[in-house]
């Protein structure tokens, strides 16, 4: 950085550098933030998540201008005022609903990409843990948002989930009452979930995203081959003009241009759903106003929670709750349960490859079963899949312990 210049023209590059170190910040975050060359479109998912979060915040701000957080006014403010009276209110609502659903699809793709390529190991443990923290925060954000239209599913999902804190009993215990602020979900309940959804959780999510980015800084992102790159050496080659020989590219403008392309394709799908298939993100039952005296025939969560819901359902109440709680947190432990020294794509890791694909298929089956009524054969398949989920996690340390070191 050039020396301080007291006579620099206000707002010139030198003037800004002297006060805000703009050039240094740009280097650290962009032009000298190095990305491996051998990665594919799956590495754009992180930026797509950040962009979708941006869309959720902006559309949320517009919805917030007309939403009424009272049990008398919430349903109509969403389904009548915003949808029919406010100019383009429907657009912001559809964007918010589709964004909330797609963000989970991309989170799952991002998570499973990390698992497939072993991006949670050898210095990348904190990236994984901060990512899981984001997963939990997004889950809480989605759940609290689902309460706000105060429809039948909002009410009954709120009832069922808060009942979990009574160990499955239908009687509201002290803890359940404390969470609800009442015997049943009512104004106090709606008010606190409103506060969580529009203020506290987004604030924590923003902090967690900054933390996630910070954890990426030193280990850098992994690559398709799990190759250990000497980033200093590779960056020096790039800076010396030996771009072909270097194993890295700068984040901006080179990698960013690819990110923007993948994001363009994603937003075509996003707006296709917003304009033509918005019901994909809305449950028809939630278009009935909340009624504490009318329980819907089947109560189920949104698609992205179905796999963990199905882990809860087939077991007796207490056991189901423990299973559910473990399923929520077991992914945090992945970097420590995988004992293999290899950072490589699953396809080159023998038994781990089978483990990976079995886990993925198992979660898809659990998701499908979670939506079906818990009867007959569906119950049996759900039970087997839930047990398999735990068997897989128990087996992980053993199958990875004996994995042979892959020669580089
Ligand atoms: C929801 C908000 C999230 C945002 C905005 C976000 C953002 C990012 C970004 C920008 C990257 C670097 C580029 C890339 O690999 O895509 C990244 C990497 C990573 N993220 Fe996330 N992420 C989020 C959630 C998660 C979750 C839920 C997990 C998993 C538990 C996770 C785990 C990882 C891992 C392991 C990497 C490193 C990938 C590698 O080294 O190849 N992230 N994230």
TrEMBL record:
This protein's record includes keyword Cell membrane: no
GO CC terms: membrane
Pfam families, per database record: Cytochrom_B_C, Cytochrome_B
Domain Cytochrome b/b6 N-terminal region profile residue range list: 12-225
A biological process from GO: respiratory electron transport chain
Localization in the cell: Membrane
Gene Ontology MF terms: electron transfer activity; metal ion binding; oxidoreductase activity
TM region positions: 41-68, 98-119, 126-148, 193-214, 260-280, 319-338, 350-370, 376-399
The keyword Membrane is assigned to this record: yes
Residues of the Cytochrome b/b6 C-terminal region profile domain: 241-408
Keywords in alphabetical order: Electron transport, Heme, Iron, Membrane, Metal-binding, Oxidoreductase, Respiratory chain, Transmembrane, Transmembrane helix, Transport
Annotated EC: 1.10.2.2
InterPro entries reported for this sequence: Cyt_b/b6_C, Cyt_b/b6_C_sf, Cyt_b/b6_N, Cytb/b6-like_sf, Cytochrome_b_N_euk/bac, Di-haem_cyt_TM
Mode of membrane association: Multi-pass membrane protein
Protein name: Ubiquinol--cytochrome c reductase, cytochrome B subunit (EC)
Organism: uncultured Sulfurovum sp
